[in-house]
Structures are given as C-alpha cells and as structure tokens.
Amino acid sequence: MTDPNKPDQNISEDDWASAMSEQEQEENTADGEEEDPWAAAMAEQQTAEEEAAAEEAVEAAEETPASEAKAASDDVFRPLTQEDGAAASRDLEMIMDIPVKLTVELGRTKLTIKQLLELAQGSVIELEGLAGEPMDILINGYLVAQGEVVVIDDKYGIRITEIITPSERIHKLNR
Fold first, then answer.
1. Number of C-alpha atoms within 13 angstroms, CB side, residue 28?
2. What value does the mean pLDDT take over residues 156-162?
3. Among candidates 132, 155, 146, 165, which has minimal Cα distance to 103?
4. Rounded distance, CA 61 to CA 55, Å?
C-alpha cells in the first residue's frame, strides 16, 4: 500500500496498525485527563454558582434570627389582609394613565386601485354599514361597544348604546 502524497514510499500494514494504536492511546489519555474543554468549563461555572448560592444562604441565615423566620408558604401564598386591597388599587392606578386609541367606525368598503385613483372632491363612497345602524367603537382595534352619532355644539360625538361582551365579540368575529 502507498501513501497518495508519497507514491515512491511503501507503507506496510504494520505501520498503519501502529499509527492507529498510537492515535487510540492519545485519545484514551486525553479522555482520562479531560473529556471536553467546554464541559469542564461549564462544570466549573456551575460549581462556582452553587458555592456562591450556598454562601448567600448562609449569610441570610446568619442575618435572620430564628424568631423572625417565616414559613415558605407565607411568601408564596400570603394571607389576604385589608392592606392587600389597597395595594391592588394602587396597582390599578398605575395603568390609569396609559393611553389607548378609541376609533368609531362608520362602515367599511373595498375598492380597486383604479376606483381609488378615480376619486375626486365630491365623490361618494358607498359603505357596507346601513343608515341608522349602530357604529362600532373600537379600543386599540378591538370591538368593545356600539353607539349612535350625536351632535353637541357643532361637534360630533357618540352615545354608547351597547357594551359588547367577550362572547358577543367572538360571535361577531365568526361572521
């Protein structure tokens, strides 16, 4: 048998066998010393994290007297008190100033690009909604109520006539 890189040199089967056994010995010694450098690094990091957590637990135990120790269930399932009701209202107050987009929809229609380009001042667009039909009131794009148009001091407004329940919203989506 010959080496493709050195066609003049003959290589015997014994040379191949010895090279293979040499390679296996190197792999075995490498396996014995360190399997994978990444695995060793990950194991070292995990050990360091476990030691740090253990130290923190010991420090916390030293700082907290036994008389002040709480059961874990008190932290997870705190008993309800009057103060908790006040905290819930404070949480609700936090969201009161978040702006939402309210949209009143008269109706919808579909146009082709040709029809759109033909629009001019004075053009009339026919909508799917019927005259006198309640208009949809959307909050952030979700239907929440229906109402009718009112005019107050030369300004348009909408009077809510019906609040849409979640089950009615689903029913309207299926239409």
1. 6
2. 90
3. 146
4. 10
